[in-house]
Amino acid sequence: MRRTESAPLRTSAGRVAGLGLAMLTIVASMMLWAQSSKLTSKPGLRVPSDVSWTEDTIALASGGSVVRGLILSRRCDRCHGGEGFSSRPTTPNLAGLDRLSFWKQLQDFRSGKRPSFIMQQVLQFVLPESDPDLAAYYSMLPTSSDPQDVREFPSAAPAAGHTTIAARLVSLGDGRRGIPPCQACHGPVAFVRGAPPLRAQNTGYILEQLEAFADASRANDINISMRSISAALTDEERRALAEYYGAGFGMNSAGATAAP
Ligand code: HEC
Ligand code: HEC
Questions:
Q1: Which of 237, 218, 235, 236 has the alpha carbon at shortest distance from 227?
Q2: What pTM was estimated for this model as a whole?
Q3: Is the minimum distance from the CB of 120 to ligand 1 under 6 angstroms?
Q4: CATH second-level architecture of 162-258?
């Protein structure tokens, strides 16, 4: 008798609990939605990268094994080339990239801070623990040329007038517009942590990245440095810089300053 009486009670209690849970889910998803729309409507407040340079991240990014990286790198050959030089203009060369820049980009692809459908798919099949190994391997690949290899780099010399425009920006920048010299961060004069060397990078890729920074579709640069620099450049300057580095003119600082 008692059992049958308490049964409806129990079900209504269950129903109340169920309703509570549904409400909670709705409230929680509304809060999430509000938070995400706040983030997207104010891009300035968005954190550019989950990576910050601390003793721990630096030790992690630089502690990989070249041999383990070599084995894993076979999965990357198809696009980035067997020697770290790509045959496609908009696919980056990885040979000689420093470990910190390399590792940071992989973290940013993984977290979606740097959107790339291709690299996100690729990294689903690579353990994050292997990222330092891949960084170690590619950082020691030589950037010297190999006639047997099919590579996009170096491309033809810059268009007329572009060498002058680029050489000036690379070695002097433009103080009036707040553009520091590229070589003060990307080498060979000095390197800022996380700024990859551009000396052996493809024209097409550099141009695409500069345009992406300028319109903030690539926004994973800590301190907004590249977004503000690239937005201050003209279309022609971005093209000139891409052609300059892509032709191999950024190899040494003497080349940058001595160019006509
Ligand atoms: C299917 C082609 C493809 C494969 C395979 C591939 N990548 Fe990429 N990778 C790209 C493209 C294209 C980009 C440029 C980002 C973009 O535009 O999506 C890129 C960008 C990168 C970058 C950033 C470089 C820079 O200068 O910022 C790194 C690092 C990288 N890939 C590492 C790897 C590693 C390591 C593997 C193998 C585990 C790999 N990639 C496999 C196509 C590929
Ligand atoms: C204040 C230092 C600084 C200066 C000056 C600077 N950069 Fe950068 N640049 C960086 C950093 C740091 C990154 C890496 C951003 C990130 O974390 O993704 C970067 C990234 C880039 C990339 C993307 C490279 C890749 O492999 O994906 C290009 C291209 C580039 N810079 C070009 C330039 C050019 C051209 C100039 C000169 C007009 C310049 N930069 C001046 C700091 C600088």
A1: 218
A2: 0.86
A3: no
A4: Orthogonal Bundle (1.10)
